[in-house]
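Limitations

Structures in this collection are predictions, not experimental determinations, and the ligand pose is part of the prediction. Treat each record accordingly. The example that follows, with adenosine-5'-triphosphate as the small molecule, is included so readers can see exactly what is and is not provided: the inputs are given verbatim, and the output is the predicted complex.
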Amino acid sequence: MLTAYDIMPEVMEAVIFSGLQAAGKTTLYRDRFLETHARISMDLLRTRAREAAFLRVCFETRTPFVVDNTNPTVAERARYVQPAREAGYKVIGYLVEVDHAVAAGRNLARERKVPAAGLRDVARRLVRPTPEEGFDELWHATAGPDGWRIEPLLTTPPLF
Ligand SMILES: Nc1ncnc2c1ncn2[C@@H]1O[C@H](COP(=O)(O)OP(=O)(O)OP(=O)(O)O)[C@@H](O)[C@H]1O
Ligand SMILES: [Mg+2]
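Predicted complex:
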């Protein structure tokens, strides 16, 4: 018997964000993915066990999802890239980038502030995602006053 899942489009997207705190990742999720992709975020789920359980449900139900964490390193992204590939997802990365000073300013202006040291730590550890990690597509997203500018990552030189 056919189930709803059998007739869903074949391409399921696993979208993995990387970027500093206050760079605009959750804003990007809200602007571009809210209606189509589940949100997996440590801010929301708090523990790796809970995160793993949510990911399992996404895989089992073939639900498109976005991982909305800072994910600065290859190892942190591999946690999602490999299982998503094995589950048959198209794996898409977004580097959400703004100048450190802009991120720091937005951080100070928002309700949920993270310590400046946390921002510096992620900035120090941040490695640009590459296709070798298993990404099928890589995008660079930067939010300016007139909206998102989203371009292929590989042809976008580092902004800063
Ligand atoms: N284009 C923009 N112009 C001005 N402010 C913005 C813009 N995009 C996002 N912000 C503001 O910057 C702050 C940080 O954005 P957001 O919460 O999306 O960052 P984040 O990358 O999800 O941070 P975190 O990793 O800490 O969750 C928010 O207060 C948001 O409203
Ligand atoms: Mg966020």
